[in-house]
Automatic annotation (TrEMBL):
Entry keyword set: Iron, Metal-binding, Plasmid, Pyridoxal phosphate, Signal, Thiamine biosynthesis, Transferase
Catalysed reactions, semicolon-separated: N(6)-(pyridoxal phosphate)-L-lysyl-[4-amino-5-hydroxymethyl-2-methylpyrimidine phosphate synthase] + L-histidyl-[4-amino-5-hydroxymethyl-2-methylpyrimidine phosphate synthase] + 2 Fe(3+) + 4 H2O = L-lysyl-[4-amino-5-hydroxymethyl-2-methylpyrimidine phosphate synthase] + (2S)-2-amino-5-hydroxy-4-oxopentanoyl-[4-amino-5-hydroxymethyl-2-methylpyrimidine phosphate synthase] + 4-amino-2-methyl-5-(phosphooxymethyl)pyrimidine + 3-oxopropanoate + 2 Fe(2+) + 2 H(+)
Role: Responsible for the formation of the pyrimidine heterocycle in the thiamine biosynthesis pathway. Catalyzes the formation of hydroxymethylpyrimidine phosphate (HMP-P) from histidine and pyridoxal phosphate (PLP). The protein uses PLP and the active site histidine to form HMP-P, generating an inactive enzyme. The enzyme can only undergo a single turnover, which suggests it is a suicide enzyme.
Organism: Ketogulonicigenium vulgare (strain WSH-001)
Keyword Metal-binding: yes
Domain SsuA/THI5-like: 32-244
SUPFAM superfamilies, alphabetized: Periplasmic binding protein-like II (SSF53850)
The protein's name: Thiamine pyrimidine synthase
Domain of life of the source: Bacteria
Family: Belongs to the NMT1/THI5 family.
GO molecular function: metal ion binding; transferase activity
Quaternary organization: Homodimer.
Pfam families referenced in this protein's UniProt entry, alphabetically: NMT1
Pathway: Cofactor biosynthesis; thiamine diphosphate biosynthesis
Length: 326
């Protein structure tokens, strides 16, 4: 957590000249290649050069959005759904960054399943799911967009979905192509996939880094220092994928190091960290709004009473990238 007294005592000094200011960031999941720039920035000294001592908090059962909103962390790494849900529900969170410039998720099925050739064929099939309303909105939209009847059976299996699909116990599931997709390839599984964006789903960015509005208002220089060092970490990782993978492997507990290196190469080869002339971490305002509007319209976002939230119209204050300015 940011210590206000320490921070106040250091006012007037260049941040890099101060004693290192402690900063915490909560993760959305166990350590993986989505977080590689954070680990690189810490291990290569980019945070230290910015005058920061960054503690990457271990993943817990409490969501990073909840930890951040409660003040248990200074920054949070959140999924797009996690951030938008929290902000729509009234949490004082501001997105500062988007890691993946394009959607890495995909709907996957066994290639030898002759009954599936297009999303419309999923009607009446069995889906291995994870228990969120987003999944139903996503799958239903894809089937309808392809002219099918959006009716299917769901069994909630969590991460067991991938073994169930491989064994043929279910017909399809969702995966991240830069992680589970890479793992399936390493295991020699013959699987095919449909891209969400080809069937009516906005091509969302994902992997937001956010803070509380109060932190941004009270400590803009510290936010800028943290975010610029983070950007340096991810940019270095994009330029040096093999070395970055080795750094991440050394920092975590990975039973299969080949999955880490393969995932990082897939991220780089797929152009996920860089998109045209947008800087690494840049938020696309149009796509941010499109995804938020999709979630509102699909009634994925609900209030404490369970009722669907109403589209607020202007969400331009949900994100802020002024830290990128020199």
């Amino acid at each position: 957590m940011i210590r206000p007294l320490l921070f106040a005592a250091c006012l007037g000094l260049p941040l890099a000249a101060q004693a290192e200011t402690p900063v915490t960031i909560a993760l959305d999941w166990t350590l993986n290649t989505n977080h590689i720039g954070l680990v690189v920035a810490r291990e290569r000294g980019f945070y230290a050069d910015a005058g920061l001592a960054v503690d990457i908090l271990p993943y817990s059962d409490t969501s990073s959005a909840a930890l951040l909103a409660a003040g248990a962390a200074d920054f949070g790494y959140l999924t797009a759904l996690g951030f938008i849900s929290a902000r729509a529900g009234g949490a004082d969170l501001v997105a500062l960054w988007a890691t993946m410039q394009h959607e890495t998720g995909q709907l996957v099925y066994n290639s030898d399943n002759a009954a599936i050739t297009r999303p419309a064929d999923l009607s009446g099939k069995t889906y291995a799911g994870f228990g969120s309303a987003w999944e139903a909105a996503l799958i239903g939209t894809m089937i309808r967009h392809d002219g099918g009847d959006p009716v299917w059976d769901t069994v909630t299996l969590g991460t067991g979905a991938y073994e169930a699909l491989a064994s043929g116990a279910v017909d399809f599931t969702l995966e991240v192509r830069t992680w589970e997709g890479v793992n399936s390839s390493l295991l020699g599984r013959n699987q095919s996939a449909f891209r969400y964006a080809d069937y009516g789903i906005p091509d969302q960015q994902n992997g937001y880094i956010a803070t509380r509005g109060a932190v941004l208002a009270d400590h803009p220089d510290l936010v800028a220092a943290f975010m610029r060092a983070t950007q340096t970490g991810y940019t270095w990782a994009a330029d040096h994928p093999e070395e970055a993978s080795a750094i991440l492997i050394a920092a975590g507990d990975f039973p299969n190091p080949a999955l880490v290196s393969g995932s990082m190469q897939a991220i780089v080869d797929g152009g996920y960290l860089r998109d045209a002339d947008r800087p690494v971490g840049g938020i696309d305002a149009d796509r941010f709004a499109q995804m938020a509007r999709f979630l509102f319209d699909a009634e994925v976002l609900t209030g404490a009473d369970g009722a669907a939230l109403v589209w607020p119209g202007d969400i331009s204050d949900w994100y802020d990238q002024d830290w990128m300015q020199p």
